[in-house]
TrEMBL record:
This is D-alanyl-D-alanine carboxypeptidase family protein. InterPro entries: DD-CPase-like, VanY-like_core_dom, VanY/YodJ_core_dom, Zn_M74/Hedgehog-like. It comes from Cohnella fermenti. Residues 127-242 form the D-alanyl-D-alanine carboxypeptidase-like core domain. CDD domains: LD-carboxypeptidase. Residues 30-70 are annotated as: Disordered. Keywords: Carboxypeptidase, Hydrolase, Protease. GO terms for biological process: proteolysis. It holds the Pfam family VanY. GO terms for molecular function: carboxypeptidase activity.
Amino acid sequence: MKRWLALLPALAILSSCGFRESTSRIDAGASLSGSPVRVTNGAGHSETNGKPGTVEKPGRSTGQTVGAEQASEWKTLELTEEMTHLGELVLVNRDRELWPEAVPGDIVDLGEREDLTSGYSLLDPSIELSEQVALRFGEMVEAASSDGVRHFRISSGYRSFDEQEELYEEKGDDYALPAGYSEHNLGLSLDIGSTQGPIDDSAEGSWLKKRAWDYGFVLRYPKDKSSVTGIQYEPWHFRYVGLPHSLIMKKKDFVLEEYLAYLKEKRTIVAEAKGTRYRITYVPVPATDGTAAEVPVNGDYTLSGDNAGGVIVTVSLKEAA
Ligand SMILES: [Zn+2]
């Protein structure tokens, strides 16, 4: 087991956002029934109970031929150590400092972007966020609105290292993380509130607990995962990881630490989400040598580091049957 995973349970349970909103009354675990994601390992064996460690045969060690029949041509892509620190799946916590280069280049000032912020309010007009994440959040808010849930408010988004350092000095070690160790420094996380009261007691909070994963967001610090995340329950803090990862995490009841450890162990899994089949491969990237992965010449794929020595290659295979 990696050192950071072994150490986490021993850590004090901290707050990551720098403030407390309310005590919790609703369980973080959302119902998994009807989840539109199905996960198998790379060799195509279905998992029966959705828990890690129950697959009878491990996924293939390279995974590079799995699903190849679905794509006409594959090319070799060089993976470098730098890539292990970049992307939507990078782990940022008290033991994993983010690379400043991991902050996406599309951070925008939400207060100046009415086109991005219709349907919800901002606690402060100076709140910043990745534009892509804001677009996904907007889609989610629109979907909630069609369910009659319409009182979302973003209370915090991207924070620069300087802002985080200031917060850390002001709040102290029990209520904030040092600069570079907070997900708010990454630009892919946000604190979501309700204008109707504490998020945990609101219709907005209830809706998010059921549906956020469908839009690529995950509740980053669930109540029953404090021993894994090292952070107390935060019903307001959501992290964007994208599809299909969010749906797999929901189905398997994984937080990011657990999901990345699972991918590292399995090396290759195949998952279906929203009608598309994905092959997800974890590739360890040696710091000195780099390595390579096979990706389709004409097809969709994404790369993300885990910020812990690996790159996750997610390839869209042909439409699920
Ligand atoms: Zn937060």
